[in-house]
Amino acid sequence: MRIMIDTNVLISIFLFPTSRMKKLVDIITDQHTIVLPSYVIDELKMVIRRKFPARYQDLDTFLSELPFEYTYTIEKIDMHKYPDIRDKKDLPVLVSAITEDVDVLITGDKDFYDLKIEKPEILTPAKFVEKYN
């Protein structure tokens, strides 16, 4: 399967590598493909630089060691073509997941859980591990 990881989960993997986060990465990298769109990478860099500047220098190493497929997030989004999401800042993430035809979007953002879409399946890290371990 193709698995997209949202920024908030990537931050947890990078900054707080608990056994649960390591298990998540192991399951995905052993059996599936990680898909990271340009929007998520850019947001990750921005958040780390702003909130955790001392760790920003380690981000290149983290990303270079994480095997993933890099995709481009379109900038001009026709909001009428996609499901309505409460937080419009999350729309590029949703659009990337849909246009890249990922099977699962792993996120901790509750705004995604109210979406009524067939694909991608939207799961928390814990639910993903529980279901696909």
Automatic annotation (TrEMBL):
Gene3D superfamilies: 5'-nuclease
SUPFAM superfamilies the record matches: PIN domain-like (SSF88723)
Location of the PIN domain: 1-114
InterPro entries, per database record: PIN-like_dom_sf (IPR029060), PIN_dom (IPR002716), PIN_toxin-like (IPR002850)
Organism domain of life: Bacteria
Entry-linked CDD domains: PIN_MtVapC28-VapC30-like
Name recorded for this polypeptide: Putative toxin-antitoxin system toxin component, PIN family
Species in which this protein is naturally found: Thermoanaerobacterium thermosaccharolyticum (Clostridium thermosaccharolyticum)
